[in-house]
Give the backbone structure.
Amino acid sequence: MFGIANPVQFYAKLVQEFDDFCENPSSARHAMNFVITAYHLHEWIWKDFLKNDAAKRKELGIAKDIRAFRDWLDSRSIWYAQMQPLANGSKHFQPANGPQIRMHQVGSLNTFAFNEVAYNEGYSHFVVDMGLQEGLPNIAPAAMLFEAVLRFWRDFFRAHSPYNELPKGRTILSDEWPTIQP
């Protein structure tokens, strides 16, 4: 399908969608593409190798049913579990059941303290709105949610797929930053 023939190639599409979103975190197109790809990756995995691999399904405790696989995925990552309502909501013009993703405007900083024109520019980016916590808005950049889902799929492939090589993106993930050695 469009030159994508296996789940690793579909995962590569997910990596590219993540990179594109990180480079333009106010792009609804990149956000939707990431969410839809992240959710539908399970279908590619199921059809390619998990559906007919009884030993792997037994190891994971999954029946030979794609719904059981989806339930297993949802139980392993609260963040992946958010992809289905977001993907379906974006495709069918309906709000998601669960955290909402919305645009957040960040205003300019006070130029008096910095005296720099660069601080006078505001910007926008998508955030996950998780409601109020102790009466205050509880939001996080959507890129954080997307990274958690990307890392979940990366780790799933490493642990459970027959594929050895996984694509890397342009964006350094939070668990890939070098650590300082004593």
User: Anything to note?
Assistant: The longest strand covers residues 123-133. The longest helix spans residues 28-50. The chain has a mean pLDDT of 84. Residues 46 and 66 are 7 Å apart (CA to CA).
